[in-house]
């Protein structure tokens, strides 16, 4: 245990577990994923594929694919569905559908001490409602998630309660280890339900918005029902995440505000709200697939001019979409003037793990 702790302490200064703007496998383990919310205007498609091989000599491979779709909506909500073509949940319904809505009322990205998420869904195979509450917190390179689920019973009995937790450990910018364990409080011994577990190596693919999980688990599908009911068979597989940023094509693109006018008469004494913009310009850049600097502190009225010093396209996009550079070619510069005090979190749509913050202070 102390060696384990020492390992953590060694890694802590080298890594951060900042949440990604798009749904990323670097933020969550395979079977505990309910607090994933895509940014507004982003549709997330994840392909989860698991398989099992029968024993020798047949070694027949059986595949268990799950397709995950989620659309980020305003107010930190998301709607979506999961579709599995080889579900073992109920014998007569191999094509399992789950339609869900999610809400993330609290988020560390928005300054809360932790992430609080909720999901309610309808599972067509079970013909019942399922729900989940999740609490998560990122601390240095570690992100811990705990979940409570209430699940309709596939055999038509009383509702089941599942409790579980998982963690991701970010080893470096592109690689994390992940695992989780979920168990029903009353497992059905007739159907052979076991505690559900999973373990994976999760990778962000550099230069792309995609993440990949190579995983082992004893669950079949990724629905709330499927991710809570372990089987006696170990499966291997992968998950691949593909965010589509529809906002880039349909979202409101805020035009760059006009440059601040020359300061007129000085404000009345004691009146800070009418402080004139300073009009200064601060230079920043994208370099090595990162915003540099990642944190910019400026007085109100300052313009930040980002220059793309990489060989690939980037964007400067506010998490709340209050500004968006659109695609910036290598060498391009995009200025934005910050006229209101506040903390502005931004990211790159192409590389959602690229994140930064602009702190705009009241001009003195
Ligand atoms: Cu980028």
Concise overview:
The protein is mainly β and 364 residues long. Helices cover 4% and strands 45% of the residues. A hairpin with a 2-residue loop joins strand 8 (160-172) and strand 9 (175-184).
* Class of secondary structure makeup: mainly beta
Instruction: List how many beta strands DSSP finds.
Output: 20
Which strand order do you get reading across the main beta sheet?
1-2-3-4-5-6-7-8-9-10-11-12
Strand content range: over 45%
Largest sheet: 12 strands, antiparallel, barrel
**Ions and ligands:** copper (II) ion
What portion of residues is helical?
A: under 10%
What is the CA-atom radius of gyration, in angstroms?
Answer: 23 Å
What is the CA-CA span between the terminal residues? 52 Å
What's the overall geometry? elongated
Q: pLDDT below 50 for ≥5 consecutive residues: which ranges?
A: 1-21, 251-276
H-E order: HEEEEEEEEEEEEHEEEEEEEE
**Total of DSSP H or I helical runs spanning 4+ residues:** 2
Mean pLDDT: 84
